[in-house]
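We treat protein structure as text, and this decision shapes the records that our systems exchange. We quote a single record here, exactly as it is kept in our systems:
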Amino acid sequence: MLSMKKEIFLCAINNVLSGSCDQDCQFCTQSVRYRANIERYNYKSIDKIVQEALIAKSYGALGYCLVTAGVGLDDKKTEFIAKVARAIKSEIEGLNLIACNGLASVEQLRVLKESGVDSYNHNLESAKAYDEKICTTHSWQERYQACLNVKEVGLKLCSGGIFGMGESEEDRVSLIEAIASLEPEAVPLNFYHPNLALPIKERNISMVEGLKVIHTMREKLGVEKLLMIAGGRELMFKEYTKEMFEAGANAIVIGNYLTTEGEIPSTDREMIHALGYGVASSCEAKD
């Protein structure tokens, strides 16, 4: 097994525009098509976002991700995220600022980079072959191209996927290989969180299979990159968090996710220390 980093990187998510997506991704509660019982709202105030970023930083978050519902950036979203980025960077030091706003052109990404965004998160979500079965309103290739656009403008790429959405073992291998081919700086692994409103009713991955995904992804990435366990962590691993880190994870999302609740950040910090790890204090990973 590859050597593990002894410090765990913490990241926080802020859903700054929620529940207004018109796409048909069968795994996503933010799609208006499925009428999931989630909180829906327009753009948060920039002051509130900055205050929430300060709170996340106080818990040790080094990564801070600004998420908007929808298929991708348009002029309004680009301008808004750029304003938020400038506001956060003027108030808070030491945050790796991540934008997660769907499909994005080179020109839009350049605006974000010039405004202080450090990384862009765009997940492939599933294998190309399986994606065609669960999303018809945009293509897997468009997702992949958006990731290439991120790299072209010199932003750090964060790209991962969701496991347990009904895909086959072959699909999982294909997704892992596709993610690795992008050579991202960070990879968030999500494990499907079922919702009765969604067409995909059940999660088809076990804890042991989840550990295998982590281990395989770590082998593909090497030891230096961030491998983050994000949505579904609490459901999938529960008392097996130690095994999750031993399999190769070296980063987690703290606090709430996009539309589901996460663990209390202080509890996660206590868990990390109880397992014998430290909380990373720098964006540079250490042995």
Q: What stands out?
A: Strands lie at 7-17, 63-68, 96-100, 119-121, 156-158, 161-163, 186-191, 226-229, 251-254, 278-279. The chain has one domain: 8-278. The chain has a mean pLDDT of 93. Residues 15 and 258 are 6 Å apart (CA to CA).
